[in-house]
Structures are given as structure tokens and as C-alpha cells.
Design a protein that fits this description.
This protein has 407 residues and is α/β, with parallel strands linked by helices. It has 15 helices and 13 strands. A seven-stranded parallel sheet has the order 3-2-1-4-5-6-7, with helices on both faces. β12, α11 (321-324) and β13 form a beta-alpha-beta unit. α2 (69-93) packs parallel to α3 (109-117), α7 packs across α12 (339-350) and α10 (301-308) packs across α13.
Length: 407
């Protein structure tokens, strides 16, 4: 199958290090492993593709940089319109079986082109971007952004939402339809694997708490800092490994230094995705300390990576996280924004190596059986009613030709 994967969001570099970039790469790699021919249509192709994506053909949409918000919006909209032209050229020369788009704030042209051309399509929606942009950044022309969302959502053959919260936002734009499906994020369980060592004892050796993600206010970084300070005050063998960078990195570093915890904390900054598995294997337990958030709509990649790495998880009880952690079977759920509750949950898990071992095994099994990216992508293709892998289709075709010859 020939797939055109479209992402016209300039904030999501296809070969970058941020969570959204990891998501893009994971889907592309799953398609490549299926044997599909993959074409990437994007405005942000900077960076070197990982080895598994060397065969992906990149079609770059030019986008001029500017600091003016209104002008930037207009330029991104023009770049998005160019996606339709790129798809038309590709379809004319080679033929496209599926357009798979990651929804972006100004995206709409790709889904409309696919509908007009009679090509199967699906739109993956990871967040209510209009609301995000208006609340956390700058949105000059909200009406145009709402129009782009409505166009894309209405034209898509299937709409894949990463959480119930995202699906609710989609339905508020286009109504209830059987084209809308909820499909959580995944993890590459071949790349992310557990550490080859025994579960850490309850006491007497360093115990590393881990966090992976962009350091933004809605990821609970202040809560994590306060909880860790309390833990070290009770036991100096605690360590904290923070993997990622972001707007709150400076504040976190300042808090760590002011509390005299520098020797207990390692801040890696931004790292390449291929380094993350080794860093996860250095952790004994991992956290997702989200603050209280109304309409929590995330499907956190970090949590699936934690589970695939066999790490017991302590997470805030918000959104779909209770379901992801099977009501507490795969981790401990705590009151969001409560450092004392977070510290207590970590300490209790540390004190029970047997429970940590059971959670580790159960989490790994759950990630492999239900959330490996290969299964997520296969389910997505089924929702769009497309997609036997190229090798499978070729085998079926050859079998049919043999049967015809035998007749």
C-alpha cells in the first residue's frame, strides 16, 4: 500500500525529539515495517531521519519564518494548501492508497483533497488544538482555525481520537458520527524494553524516580520537585532522573539548586528518541504527576513507555489514566497536584519490592499485548477500512493468479 502521511504543523518536526515528533516517527516506522511505501508530506522535515525511516520519501512544503503571529498564521495556511498540490502530483505519478494526516491547527486541505479524489483517508487527532492555541499561545484568527478544523473533520474518511476527551471535542464540531473512533497512543515494545536486573530492594541502595517529557506547566513539574524534596528529606538514597526539556527547565533547575538537591538530580535536557530506552532502564519507578486539569484529554506517550520498560507507575488520577493503569493494577493513582500524596505513593511502592515486581511484569505484558505501535496502526487502518500490508496483498494476488491458472 502506498501511504501519504501528512503533517503541516510547523511545531512538530518529523525527525525531532519532542513527544509529538516521537509519535510521528512511531507511526511512520509501523507503516514501513508493514511493507508499505511511505511518503511524508510536511513543513518541518529538519533533522536526520532515524535508520528505520531511511526509505521514507519526504515531500517538503516550504514555509517562510516570521515573528508576526498573524502573518505566520497566513503562511502556514498557504503551506497547508500546498499539501493538496503535493498529493495531487504524487497521486498522478504513482497513485495513493491512503492519506494519513496528523491534525494540525491549520490543516484541512489534505482531507478535502482525498475526499475529492476518492482516496481513503484518516485524520489522527491528538489534541483540541484550537483550544490549546487560544489558551496557551497566540491565536489571531480563531474563526479561520475553527473553519480549518471543521473542514478536516468533515472530509476525513475516519477520525482517530487519542482519548475520550479529544473525541468529545471532535463531536462538538461535527456531531456524533460512526466515523469517529477512540484509539489510544502506543509504544514500540521492541525498542523500549525492561532493564536486565533485579527489582531494587526496599532500602540500602540508590532508588531512581524517573520522568520523561516536555517540562511544561501541565506536566506537573512543580509537584514533582516538591515531592522529591520531601522524599530526600526522609531518605538520602533517592535519585531523580528527568528526561526532557521545556519552558520550566530553568525553574526546575533553580528549585533543585535552592533545595540543595543537585547531587540527587540529573536533568538530561532534550535527547534523541533512540536514547530514551536506555534512560528508562536506569529508573526504578516512573511518574506522571499531572496537576488538576479540567477536560484532561491527553493520552500520554510517557505512560506507555513506562509500562513497556516494566516500570511501576505513579500517576495523577485524571482523564483516562485510571483506565490506562487498569484502575491501579499497573500503577498507583494519586490526587493531582498533591506533592505529599505523590511522595507517599512513591515511598510505599519502594517499600514493597514484591508489588513493584508484579506491576513491572503486568505493565510490560499490557504494553506488548495492547499498545504496541504495530497493533495501534493496524487498528487505525481497519477503522479506515484500508490496509493489508504490501507483502500480504502481493501474496494474495499471486495465490489468486495460481488458482486462476489451475482452473
Amino acid at each position: 500500500m502506498r501511504v501519504a502521511y501528512v503533517c503541516t504543523d510547523p511545531g512538530v518536526p518529523a525527525f525531532g525529539c519532542k513527544g509529538a515528533s516521537v509519535h510521528v516517527q512511531a507511526v511512520l516506522e509501523a507503516l514501513v515495517r508493514r511493507g508499505d511505501e511511505v511518503h511524508l508530506v510536511t513543513v518541518a522535515a529538519r533533522g536526520r531521519p532515524p535508520s528505520g525511516l531511511a526509505g521514507v520519501r519526504v515531500h517538503h512544503l516550504p514555509l517562510d519564518a516570521t515573528r508576526d503571529a498573524a502573518q505566520r498564521e497566513r503562511r502556514v495556511r498557504r503551506a497547508d494548501a500546498g499539501a493538496a498540490d503535493a498529493l495531487a502530483r504524487l497521486h498522478s505519478s504513482l497513485g495513493i492508497d491512503l492519506v494519513y494526516e496528523r491534525y494540525s491547527l491549520w490543516g484541512g486541505s489534505a482531507m478535502e483533497w482525498a475526499a475529492a479524489a476518492g482516496v481513503a483517508s484518516m485524520l489522527e487527532v491528538n489534541a483540541p488544538l484550537v483550544e490549546e492555541q487560544a489558551s496557551h499561545r497566540v491565536l489571531v484568527d480563531r474563526r479561520a482555525a475553527e473553519d480549518a478544523a471543521h473542514r478536516a473533520l468533515s472530509a476525513a474518511g475516519a477520525v482517530l481520537c487519542v482519548s475520550d476527551g479529544v473525541a468529545s471535542w471532535v463531536r462538538s464540531r461535527v456531531g456524533t458520527t460512526d466515523r469517529i473512533h477512540v484509539l489510544a497512543n502506543g509504544v514500540d515494545t521492541r525498542r523500549v524494553t525492561p532493564a536486565d536486573r533485579p527489582v531494587a530492594p526496599a532500602a540500602g541502595t540508590p532508588f531512581t524516580i524517573g520522568f520523561v517529557g516536555t517540562l511544561r506547566p501541565w506536566h506537573g513539574v512543580p509537584t514533582l520537585a516538591d515531592a522529591f524534596a520531601a522524599l530526600v528529606a526522609s531518605d538520602a538514597t533517592y535519585r531523580l532522573l528527568v528526561v526532557g526539556d521545556g519552558p520550566l527547565a530553568g525553574e526546575l533547575r533553580t528549585r533543585v539548586d535552592a533545595a540543595g538537591l543537585s547531587s540527587h538530580v540529573e536533568l538530561t535536557g532534550a535527547v534523541r528518541p533512540d536514547r530514551v530506552p536506555d534512560l528508562l532502564r536506569r529508573m526504578d519507578l516512573a511518574v506522571a504527576p499531572y496537576p488538576p486539569i479540567d477536560d484532561f484529554y491527553f493520552s500520554p506517550l510517557k505512560v506507555y513507555e513506562y509500562l513497556a520498560a516494566g516500570l511501576p507507575v505513579v500517576a495523577s488520577d485524571v482523564g483516562d489514566l485510571s483506565s490506562v493503569l487498569d484502575g491501579g493494577r499497573l500503577g498507583v493513582l494519586t490526587e493531582p497536584g498533591d506533592p505529599a500524596a505523590l511522595a507517599q505513593a512513591v515511598a510505599s511502592l519502594r517499600a514493597d519490592p514484591g508489588l513493584r515486581d508484579r506491576m513491572s511484569r503486568a505493565g510490560r505484558r499490557h504494553a506488548v499485548e495492547d499498545h504496541d505501535w504495530s497493533k495501534v496502526v493496524e487498528t487505525a487502518l481497519a477503522r479506515a477500512a484500508v490496509g493489508a500490508p504490501t507483502s500480504r496483498r502481493r501474496a494474495s494476488s499471486e495465490l489468486g493468479e495460481r488458482d486462476a491458472a489451475a482452473c
